[in-house]
Amino acid sequence: MKKLYVLVLVLLTAFVAGCSILQTHGSSEGGGASYFPLTQGYTWRYASSDGSTQISTIEGTATIGSITVQIMRSAYVFVSGSTITSESYYRVDSSGVYAHGSPSSPSSIGIPFLAFPLQVGKTWDVMISGSIANTAAVVAKEDVVTSIGTFNCYKVNYITKNGTVEMYNSNLWFGDNVGIVKGTSATSTIESELAWKSF
Hints:
- By secondary structure, the protein is mainly beta.
- It has one domain: YmcC-like fold, CATH 2.40.360.
- Helix content is 8%, strand content 56%.
- It has a 13-stranded antiparallel beta sheet, covered by helices on one side.
């Protein structure tokens, strides 16, 4: 299963299981909303090292209570030829990027996917529910070389723990005016990287 898809599922599952908490630590310098652009028509294609692909497009808006969210539609095409499609809701403001679920489980309270400003050393709680904790940390700012170019990115590490037991560990690299450039997981040798974008 693809890294970007798995991360979104982990975050959304965590949200359904409990409430979101945004507590951040770090200074006020660094990247902002342009590191996760949510403009109508923007499209990204990712290629994974196992030969599968993901295509995501921002396609309109939805309203959840009094909150307006952007709709991201994605198709995941696996090596076997099978395809999974999904629709997710996101909102971005000056404080961060928030995941607001999906059509089947929308929520006006968003999961803090990114906390702005991005800066190396910054950490935040994505979600705490009982013994399950999802945390994030900006661990580096570095160049990521892909088949379509080199992007200067913030590397964000996402960890899910049940008590002291680590259940999931992944990294996403976010590029200015690009969004997610690369994704990896500690539990897999498969990597996903940006292969094409249209905006």
